Amino acid sequence: MYLSTISRPTTEPTEGQPRRRRLIAISANVFALGAVSLVTDISSEMVSAVLPLYLVLGLQLSPMAYGVIDGVYTGATAVLRLVGGYLADRFRGRKVMAGIGYGISAVAKLGLLAAGRSVTGIGLVIAADRMGKGLRTAPRDALITLSTPPEALGRAFGVHRMMDSFGAFLGPLVALGVLAAAGGSYDAVFVTSFCVAVLGVVLLVLFVRDRHDPGPSPVRAVRPREALTLLHTRPVRRLALAACLLGLATIGDGFVFLLLQRREELSIVWFPLLAVGTSLAYLLLAAPMGALADLVGRVRVLIGGYTALVLAYLLLFGPLGGWPMLVLTLGLYGLFYAATDGVLMALAGPVLPERLRTTGIALIQTGQALAYLVSSVLFGAAWQVWGPAVASRIAAAAVVLAIIATVFLLLRPAAEELPA
């Protein structure tokens, strides 16, 4: 079991006595949720690793049209995140809601068999898959916060994201293996992806346990009006605003990989391995970044992650080229995810009440997803109008502005309100 050491005295030390440190174990529930995410990400990444190339080069979509689809891929189900979070809190069934989401995503994989080369069909399948993700994400993250002491949340989310990213690392490799074994049949990839996704649902049912606050159970169900009052709390409002600004400055993975492929004129065969490189860096760094966040401050690590993103964007059309540029860019991109994804949710957990925990997490994720939708469309338009080099530099400048805003929103009041 993964153990993390935290600076928390078990008793108040007298003068001259050393402070004792206590070992806190990451709970089995976190590992079970990590296993579910690992298997599900293998399924998802088998499909998504080749999707940008297929849409842009295979179906000849323009950068702006791809930006719309890429934004829909993450942002169109934003409202469903709120629905899933609210229902999970109202009926105190976070595991059930997460299971419904995982199940919908699994069934959606079979829809790719029927979609063929139809852009409309592919869009509908993507929408169904993201519907499942929208329903499951907030309940899953809420279960992690309820299965972990507040002082170890960074480590818990780091371990979960490490396992999640291992699945993302394996997914493209499994897809390439299936394609090689099946003579290039994409239908074989889709069927295999469905079978792997079903395994993830089975793991959730068998090994994940629902969790509730150890205090007294609420005597009445959560009402919509209560959920709306979350933004009346200054720490939640500031965190949600910072998440929106950071989401607005972030472009999609597909754009980054397409820019790298065009810059270095990579063979189509190598394209899925760009996602593998990012996932490998994420895999290696997720747990250390989570531990570092608990040690030096979660807001500081979050800002450091977005600083890595600025450098990655600048490298896309910088003086460095060849394999050194590819390795450095993918490494920085993986570092960005490792230092931001779970860390943001670790920041959210302590400032949200238990009975509204899932709704609050969904609220923050929804704001970021909607901002991301706008960002993808704007970046696609900038690429089409001014070219990819100018568009990527504008994106880097936008991230810098978002970092400055985040410092004012989160770091300055951190001592009073946020567990930085």
UniProtKB/TrEMBL annotation:
Top-rank taxon, per record: Bacteria
Entry's Gene Ontology cellular component terms: plasma membrane
Membrane topology per record: Multi-pass membrane protein
Xref: Gene3D superfamilies: MFS general substrate transporter like domains (1.20.1250.20)
Keywords for the protein's UniProt record, in alphabetical order: Membrane, Transmembrane, Transmembrane helix
PROSITE patterns (alphabetical): MFS (PS50850)
Record's subcellular location: Cell membrane
GO molecular function, one term: transmembrane transporter activity
Pfam families documented for this protein: MFS_1
Keyword Membrane in record: yes
Residue spans crossing the bilayer: 23-44, 64-88, 165-182, 188-208, 239-260, 266-287, 299-317, 323-348, 369-386, 392-411
Domain Major facilitator superfamily (MFS) profile: from-to ranges: 29-414
Coiled coil segments of this chain: none
Alphabetized PANTHER family for the sequence: C-METHYLTRANSFERASE, MAJOR FACILITATOR SUPERFAMILY TRANSPORTER
Protein name: MFS family permease
